[in-house]
Specification:
The complex is a heterodimer of chains A (345) and B (284).
Chain A lengths: L2 E11 L2 E12 L3 E5 L6 H9 L6 E6 L2 E2 L10 E4 L11 H11 L4 H14 L15 H13 L5 E5 L7 H18 L2 E6 L2 H7 L2 E6 L2 E6 L1 H6 L4 H6 L4 E7 L5 E3 L2 E3 L10 E6 L5 E3 L6 E10 L4 E7 L2 E7 L12 E5 L6 E4 L1
Helix pairs in contact in A: 2-3, 2-4, 3-4
Chain B lengths: L15 H21 L3 E2 L5 E2 L5 H6 L2 H33 L3 H15 L3 H11 L7 H7 L12 H26 L2 H9 L4 H12 L1 H16 L4 H5 L7 H11 L3 H31 L1
Antiparallel strand pairs in B: 1-2
The chains are: A alpha+beta (345), B mainly alpha (284).
């Protein structure tokens, strides 16, 4: 198979297992985001793919070649570090040309390639500037261009945009995704920012505790989370405990929920309902009844907090469909089966 | 944050203490020395105030030029050896565990507590024929019979490098600790072997520190006058040895002062030249 394959890759630091038997296939040209809370093993996994750390067990295969034992500098990859790691003693052009110079490429070819790359990152004419004189976004682009100088087989980025301010970060996400599609290069990005992952990735890999919890397209991760952790980690959600009564009906917060069916093997489960799927109705009409405790009007969206039997449920709506409710009012909440994802408790 | 420049005389008040210290402990003694270097020596006595150039004139001979040349050569050799040994050593040291680093640093600093005399005699024993390290090589079968390695140029160089090495590490250490370790990692992902990464990234990124270290060790080595006598032959004696000889044993203060002033001027010129070359390299 062309692309990257991780076969039961494991990394132990003493008695601590940072990465537990990870299995993943990344087809050629795919953009993968590894997402998870800090300490989930995502950076360790990326460092092993780069060869900066070696796995305790398992194999890393790139284009049908086992690269587990190949040292970093012979892997022909491009990597962008969180700190960017631009060489402070070199100019922009010299930084970008570094991988070419190391490989003994002649000066004329180096210059041609540097000009190409500078044009690609919209910094034409910056070749002779010192990297210390650039803005955050420009430094970011230079680090990307340097990593892509040799047209690597694999493009790795470790929290590449975390140092940028929110607006610039969003712009760079789009730019990075467009660049990747234009070059068709297999790309793996480590991030803890889910918006970033949703914006850029073909496949989002959600990790926790050194394990992959789910690997799927962004929309599938959002609509069909594999477990409670993924549902809670990605976006906002309402997690509601559910159990089956003697008649086989699903009981949610003391109310019978029509139409919601738990799998036969589950007596108890958790329902995940996204706030935008929570529809408020008149009291007594919906599945649940509760009292409005707080309304957060953010202009673009309105969040309504409803207390149902001590459990807080959040509903999000747009100004157009603003619910006609006030704080302290009783409301009904309608739960339809198509918006509820049943998760193991 | 932008700070305002000092406005009134009172704003400069905190400078009085350091300025006073500098005057009392540097400007006055050095001024005295410059003055003495123009004085007239009295045979059988000390010296009398005068304004003669004979002390400097006497210095302008091939003999003293040779000694000066050798002193500079020795100091430069010591500085270069220290930096060449010090950079890889300190680099590896900073990559070790904190505990290991502390042990090494304490061991190195303890060298500073040894007097130059003890260092000199220890090395001359180690380099001797009867009790030296060559006996060890003989026992290991690497040599036929023990030989004396001292007095020689190599012995002087070894002793002085040994003495200056802790200073070298102390100057390099903070710069290397601050050096972003991802710089080397980045170089490796970009295709540089660890050795190549060291020479293309670590060494150039440390350029200013390396220049500062070279200058410091150079000046430190230039002032050494005991080790060349303990470990070297008379042709390995430095200008500092001759200055000591003139000042203390020949009681010729004016001539000693003239030599010292000359040495300071040459040193300043060389340091200036190094800084100039360093600045030029940066601009290129």
């Amino acid at each position: 198979m062309s692309g990257l394959a991780l076969n039961s890759v494991t990394k132990e630091f003493g008695s601590f297992t940072a990465v537990k038997s990870v299995q993943l296939n990344v087809p050629h040209g795919t953009f993968v985001c590894m997402l998870g809370p800090s300490g989930c093993g995502k950076t360790t996994l990326l460092r092993m793919i780069a060869g900066l750390d070696s796995p305790t067990d398992g194999a890393i295969v790139l284009d049908d070649e086992d690269i587990t034992k190949i040292p970093t500098h012979k892997r022909n990859l491009g990597m962008v570090f969180q700190s960017l790691a631009l060489f402070p003693h070199l100019t922009v052009g010299e930084n970008i040309a570094y991988p070419l110079r190391i490989r003994g490429v002649d000066a004329a070819t180096q210059k041609k390639r540097v000009d190409e790359l500078l044009a690609m990152i919209h910094l034409t004419g910056y070749a002779d500037r010192p990297v210390t004189k650039l803005s955050g976004g420009q430094r970011q682009r230079v680090a990307i261009a340097r990593a892509l100088a040799i047209s690597p087989k694999l493009f790795l980025l470790d929290e590449p945009l975390s140092a940028l301010d929110a607006k610039l970060r969003e712009a760079m996400q789009v730019e990075l995704r467009q660049l990747q599609q234009q070059l068709g290069i297999t790309t793996i990005v480590v991030t803890h920012d889910q918006r970033e992952a949703m914006t850029m990735a073909d496949t989002v890999v959600v990790m926790n505790g050194g394990e992959i919890r789910q690997a799927a397209s962004p929309i599938e991760i959002y609509r069909k989370p594999a477990d409670r952790f993924v549902a809670d980690f990605i976006g906002m959600t309402n997690l509601l405990d559910t159990e089956t009564d003697s008649a086989g009906r699903a009981i949610v917060l003391g109310h019978a929920a029509e139409g919601i069916v738990l799998p036969d093997d589950l007596k108890k489960a958790t329902l995940s309902v996204r706030p935008e799927d929570v529809h408020l109705t008149a009291p007594g009409e919906g599945t649940l009844t509760g009292k409005v405790t707080f309304i957060r009007d953010l202009g673009g969206t309105i969040e309504t907090f409803v207390d149902v039997a001590g459990k807080q449920i959040v509903a999000v709506s747009t100004p157009r469909e603003r619910p006609a409710v006030t704080v302290g009012q009783n409301v009904g909440i309608n739960l339809t089966p198509d918006v509820c994802v049943v998760l193991k408790k | 944050m932008r700070r305002e420049a000092p406005q009134s005389l009172a704003d400069y008040a905190p400078l009085i203490f350091p300025a006073g210290m500098l005057t009392v402990f540097f400007v006055i003694p050095f001024g005295t020395m410059i003055a003495v270097s123009f004085f007239q020596r009295l045979q059988g006595a000390f010296y009398e105030p005068a304004f003669v150039f004979s002390n400097y004139a006497r210095f302008l001979s091939t003999f003293f030029a040779g000694v000066l040349g050798f002193s500079l050569f020795l100091a430069i050799s010591v500085a270069v050896c220290c930096v060449l040994l010090g950079i890889p050593f300190t680099y590896l040291l900073t990559r070790m565990q904190r505990k290991t680093q502390v042990v090494w640093l304490v061991a190195l600093l303890s060298i500073l507590s040894l007097s130059e005399v003890i260092i000199g005699f220890a090395w001359s024993t180690l380099f001797s024929r009867t009790a030296g390290i060559t006996n060890l090589f003989v026992a290991l079968g690497a040599m036929e019979k023990p030989v004396a390695l001292s007095p020689s140029f190599g012995a002087v160089l070894t002793g002085m490098v040994y003495q200056a090495f802790p200073y070298t590490v102390l100057i390099l250490y903070p710069a290397l600790v601050r050096l972003d370790p991802t710089l080397t990692e980045a170089a490796r992902t970009l295709g540089a072997s660890p050795v190549k990464a060291f020479f293309t990234v670590v060494v150039p990124a440390l350029r200013n520190t390396v220049i500062a270290t070279l200058i410091m060790v150079f000046i430190f080595a230039l002032g050494s006058y005991l080790l060349p006598q303990l470990l070297g032959r008379p042709q390995h004696w430095t200008l500092s040895v001759l200055i000591t000889d003139q000042a203390i044993y020949q009681s010729n203060m004016p001539f000693a002062a003239a030599m010292a002033v000359f040495l300071v001027l040459v040193t300043l010129a060389l340091v200036g030249l190094t800084l100039f070359i360093g600045r030029k390299g940066e601009a290129a």
